[in-house]
Amino acid sequence: MKKILYLIIVLITFASCGKLEDLNVNTKDFTVVKGEALFSNAQKNLVDQMVSTNVNNNIFRFFTQQWTETTYLDEVNYDIVTRTIPGNHWNTLYRRVIMNLNDASKTLDATPVLPQITGETPEIRQNKMATIEIMKVYSWSVLVQTFGNLPYSKALDIDNNPLPAYDDASTVYKDLISRLNAAIGKISLVDEGMGSFDNIYNGDMTKWLKFANSLKLRMGMVISDSDPVLAKSTVESAAAAGLITDNADNASMAYLSDQPNTNPLFVDMVASGRNDFVPANTLVDAMNTLNDPRRSLYFTQVGGIFKGGIYGSSNGFSAYSHVNSNMLEPTFPGVILDAAEVEFLLAEAVEKTFNVGGTAESHYNNGVKASILNWGGAQADVDTYLANPNVAYTNAGSGATYKEKIGKQAWIALYNRGWEAWQEWVRLDYPIFVAPATAKSAIPVRLIYPISEQTLNGDAWKAGAAALGTEGDVVTQKLFFDKF
User: What does pLDDT average to over the chain?
Assistant: First the structure.
């Protein structure tokens, strides 16, 4: 009898504990996050990082001297270690973008397709998976082009590989092109994709296909000096399949009017109340010389003229032109790939005898046109500008070589797209920039690895850095694709 009574007391106690524990559970919270939501979060984190102006995260506008600083001059003098800039760029792309995308694909893969209940068909699911993969490839390509060798094949298997080895950058890049081709092959144009969870194309797979092909074009041109055979087949197949050649198809993030979903420019330059940046004289003077119609769209005037702050020096904020107010709107779109960039890549492809249709001049002109119109200029502005002997492609005044011609106009068109402008400069070596006398180094052609990699993954870091080249883990070490 005592045993039975004891058993009853124990059962009642456990039941009571279970009820008490239930009180600590928020029944309104999601227990499983939808794969689509993870994708949306990763997409925003990616675009935020690529368009950010925060000196802790993104200082690429300084590398190509499009902007300069007013008071704190570390970053414009190529000091990337006082702040943990490489680590923040690395961690954002690995943790907040690629890991989320990886979890998104895993979650969707584990979720049954139930057309009669959710309306999602196998074709829609396949489009969703293809969209995630395209974003993964984009993110990985940014990392490889920024750092070189890096953890890749074992990078996301934290449980089994907490200290992943560094993979060869060239090998990774080739694998990314293969992955991109596979994702492109899975797209169904008659079905939707991520729908409202997609803040760039709203699930429009026709536009995603153009984006994927345009990314493929870019990646092909990146390796055009290091692997011309693969580059040729990659570029030509991308061009034949359809690219972003209209501003309506630009890969552009739709931001909202309220934080935390505003454009990072608004956060860094308006909400912060700080006056840290002005356009640099390097860019402003070049555009003044060309009487460029985009000056009034890029900058404000001071004293009736466009005047850039002296790059690398202390600059009084009120004494120089400022970023145009249209860029400071909270809803100003964040662009990661556009028609102007595509056209300049095509112009370069023609010069390298790749079969992409058109002429180098026609694509160059289209790139200039797409940029001017996208920023709010008129066709008359385009015509006048291209008639300028110092702009016209066939005139020696616009540059003695195609690299000079394309490099200069791509640099101007990629204003406010610091990472992309920097990458084009790394490949083309134009325009020619002069580092400030107080610079910590020559203009970086890569970012160094995060300090955390040296301390937490030291053996892999040493091997990966040594394999980069004779200079190792420094900002002047050219990467595998940078042959000239």
Answer: 93
- The residue written with tokens 């010069």 in the block is 351
94-114: pLDDT as tens digits: 999 999 999 999 999 999 999
Neighbouring residues of 378: CB distance < 8 A, sequence distance ≥ 6: none
> Going by C-beta distance under 8 Å and a sequence separation of 6 or more, which residues neighbour residue 115?
121, 122
Q: How far apart are CA 180 and CA 170, in angstroms?
A: 15
pLDDT given for residue 15 in this prediction:
42
Each residue of 281-325: pLDDT tens digit? 999 999 999 999 999 999 999 999 999 999 999 999 999 999 999
- Residue 133 is predicted with a pLDDT of 98
Residue holding tokens 């979890």?
Answer: 103
* Amino acid (1-letter code) at residue 321: S
369-420 pLDDT, tens digit per residue, is 999 999 999 999 999 999 999 999 997 565 689 999 999 999 999 999 999 9
The answer to whether the CB of 349 falls within 8 A of the CB of 239 is yes
Rounded Cα distance between 272 and 366, Å, is 37
- Tell me the percentage of the chain whose pLDDT exceeds 90: 90
pLDDT at 158: 87
Beta carbons of 142 and 451 less than 8 angstroms apart? no
Cα 384 to Cα 437: distance, rounded to the nearest angstrom? 37
Give the integer Cα–Cα distance in Å for 365 and 350.
Answer: 13
Q: Give pTM, 2 decimals.
A: 0.93
Residues 6+ apart with CB under 8 A from 108: 35, 36, 125, 128, 129, 132
Domain limits of the chain?
35-254+333-337+416-466, 264-328
Residue-level length of the chain: 484
Please provide the DSSP assignment of 16-78 as one string.
Answer: HHHHHHHTTS-TTS-SS--HHHHHHHHHHHHHHHHH---TTT--HHHHTTSEEESS--TGGGT
Please list, in sequence order, all residues whose beta carbon lies within 8 angstroms of the beta carbon of residue 391, skipping any fewer than 6 positions away: 290, 368, 385, 398, 409
Residues 6+ apart with CB under 8 A from 119: none
Check: CB of residue 231 under 8 Å from CB of residue 220: yes
Q: CA-CA distances (angstroms) from residue 69 to 59, 61, 151, 413?
A: 11, 11, 34, 21
Query: Class of 35-254+333-337+416-466 per CATH?
Result: mainly alpha
Distance CA 446, CA 482 (A): 10
